[in-house]
Amino acid sequence: MNGENGARNLFYLMGATLLAASLLVFILSRGTRLAGGLRALTEAKAARGRLIEEARRLDLTYDSALAAPAAAAGKPALWCLRKLPSGPAAYRGDDSRPVYITNIREMPDYAGPKQQTCTDTLVVIGTFTALQFGEVYGARLEARFIAYP
User: Fold this and answer.
1) How far apart are alpha carbons 90 and 87 in whole angstroms?
2) What global pTM score does this model have?
3) Which of 2, 4, 15, 82 has a C-alpha 20 to 30 A away from that of 33?
4) Tens of pLDDT, residues 15-55
């Protein structure tokens, strides 16, 4: 009887060891993927931080970007934008100062309190298109949404 219990206990011990080893391999393989994902998130956050610092240093406004479009193109900016249900975003909540977001699907609908007219937004200024219809002049300013800092 004693030998039979010993064999059964040994069998259970071997099964538990195999299960623990399998679990350990599974956890380690997932951990490597999680570490890679965490590293990518950390790198993206650091890149956004550098863009935010540069945007603060440059201090580009809507008007300064329109005044010198070649100098502003490709530069980061921190602009207070309101995403409208359709069409361009509004600079400082002003519909007469449109910003066409080129990756609008990546920009969440709203990131602040409902009474707020705009939300601080990190963008990279893109292209400018000058429009003229007779005596009327207009400009189309495009930017790429990066994040809500």
Assistant:
1) 9
2) 0.68
3) 15
4) 777 776 667 667 666 665 655 667 777 777 788 899 999 99
